[in-house]
Amino acid sequence: MRRRVLGLVTALALGAGMLGCAKIGSFMRPLTYGPNFDYITKEQLKSVMWQLARDVNRIDALVNDPAGVGPAQRDEIARLLVIMEDATGRLGREGIRTNHPLVDEHRDQFRADLAAARRGVSAEPPSYTLTREVSGACLHCHRHGTR
User: Fold this and answer.
1) How far apart are CA 119 and CA 51, in angstroms?
2) 17-64 pLDDT, tens per residue?
């Protein structure tokens, strides 16, 4: 009997240890947060922000090229703006709260800024005014001391 109890206690301890090490958070989140909430991991947030930074730097280089913006550069700018719009989708759905209030506060406006810049690039003749301001839109959040 004693051996059986010891085996049961050992099994429970091992099971609890394995459960504690498992990614229980990703399993429990859908159960603890409602459908009107998007949980964004730190890794997901960092990944999107690094992608946006890379793309906005490339766009800045293209629109500020002393040689001007030719058709190939125009296409690249439009492509990057679409990629950036898509990336913001990983920062939560439009109008839905997340665990990052600063992102919630500025996300929808940033998406609108990207869409307006893309429309300007696609217009005939193209306008790069709003595109030049995309990197400035980053400052809405990052002036608050976030990276």
Assistant:
1) 21
2) 655 555 666 665 566 667 778 888 999 999 999 999 999 999 999 999
Distance of alpha carbon 61 from alpha carbon 57, whole angstroms: 6
Of 115, 131, 138, the residue nearest 74 (C-alpha): 131
- Is it true that the peptide bond before 125 is cis, omega within 30 degrees of 0? yes
Q: Phi and psi at residue 94, in whole multiples of 5°?
A: -60, 130
Confidence of residue 116 (pLDDT cuts 50, 70, 90): very high
CA distances from 18 to 9, 22, 27, 30 (A): 14, 6, 14, 21
Provide the angle, in degrees to the nearest 10, between the axes of the packed helices 101-122 and 71-88.
150
User: Domain residues of the chain, as ranges?
Assistant: 24-142
Residue with tokens 């193209």: 126
Distant-in-sequence, close-in-space partners of 103: CB < 8 Å, separation ≥ 6: 40, 45, 91, 92, 141
